Structure formats: structure tokens, C-alpha cells
Amino acid sequence: MSESTTLTLYSHPFSSYCQKVLTALWENDIAFTYRHLEDPGAGAECTALWPIGRFPVLVDGDRTIVESSIIIEYFDMHFPGPVQLIPVDREAALEVRLLDRFCDNYVMAAMQKPVFEMLKGDPGRKEAAMAEAAAALDTAYAWLDTRLAGRRWAAGADFTMADCAAAPSLFYADWVHPIGANWPRLREYRVQLLARPSFARAVEEGRRYRSYFPLGAPDRD
Ligand SMILES: N[C@@H](CCC(=O)N[C@@H](CS)C(=O)NCC(=O)O)C(=O)O
């Protein structure tokens, strides 16, 4: 991207947590250098920066910032743009952080469980892992559907970090366990997220990696 940027993001287009951060970057058109994790040496560089071995990882000059929510908070502090991803009002910010945590901990994590089982090469665990994911996701879907009542976006009227988290988590969760017709608000919300240009771009850039999805990607978004 821009040659003058101080920001480098270690990222992969198909990774849900990377898509969360990319959505935030593209919401405010923040310039950054994309260090694709399939590029030679990028994986080792990324692990050297963050030995936990998870990504995305952001580098800003001599500073390394990790964890998708912290990275988005960092953008909000240091690269503010027209879309305020963390509200100034602290009560409103609390709701944004709650929805962000909810999507990561109870949607993304539940969705990732059977994915990791398959990646570990334990297909014998698939059925049980899928059943566990379905039960956990149904609980999460029900809560979210209720919480969305009267809201345009996850935490209220405006697009925030909560939507950056919700977009990839619901995108992939629906592949693992489709959001049932009994949660119309949540289904409609997922459609709305897919239409948001920042997230639509993330989905588009990840499209050619769909064969990586260990449970088999459906023939739809
Ligand atoms: N809590 C981390 C989670 C990041 C995460 O789990 N990223 C996945 C990719 S979507 C990953 O690094 N997977 C590699 C692995 O688990 O070895 C965050 O919010 O950034």
C-alpha cells in the first residue's frame, strides 16, 4: 500500500482475526504495508515478534502491537478517521467492548474448535466437535439476536469495533452451523455485514483460499 506508512500488518487473507483488523483498517482507509504470511520469511518474522504464534501482528516503527482488539484500539488512538470504532462515551464503549469480546470468545472460539480438530488431523473427533460447536453457537446466536433488537449495528446505531469482530466470526460460524430462521435479526445482520464495503473486501481477498477451510467451504458467502 502506501510507501510512507509506518504500519506493517502480518496477515493472511483467509484468517478471521486478520479480517477483523483489515475491516478496521479499510473502514478508515489507513495506509499500511501488507506482510502476507505466505511470503518467504514472513511466518518466522511474525513468530519472532509474537512467540505465541497467533496473528495478525501489527508493527508500527519499533513497536509491536498484538491481539486484534488491541490493534483496533491502537488505530482508534493513533490513526483516527471518520469512522469512530470505539465511542468516546465510556458507557457506549463498554457495550462495544462487550460485543467485541462476545464475538471473539463465544462465536469465533466456538466456530474454530471443529476447525482446529480437523487441522490436527483427527477426523474421528469431527462429529463430536461439530455437535459441541452447534450447541455453543446456538446459545451465542440466541443471545446476539436478542441484543440486536432495535439496533442497526452490533452495539447501536454506528459501525464500531464490535462489527469488525462480528463480521468474520458470523461469516465463518454460519459455515460451521448455519444461523437458523428463528434468529431473523442475526441473519439479516450477517447479510448487512457482507454488504459493508470494508468487510466485503476482506471476504473477496480471502475467496481464493477457500479450499483451506478444513470442514469444506460451502458454495456461498
Ligand atoms: N486472540 C487473538 C486470536 C488470533 C488467532 O487465533 N488467530 C488465528 C488465525 S485466525 C491464528 O493465529 N491461528 C494460528 C494458530 O492457532 O496456530 C487475536 O484476537 O488476535
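^ glutathione complex. Strands lie at 7-11, 33-36, 57-60, 63-66. Residues 7-78 form a domain with the Glutaredoxin fold (CATH 3.40.30.10).
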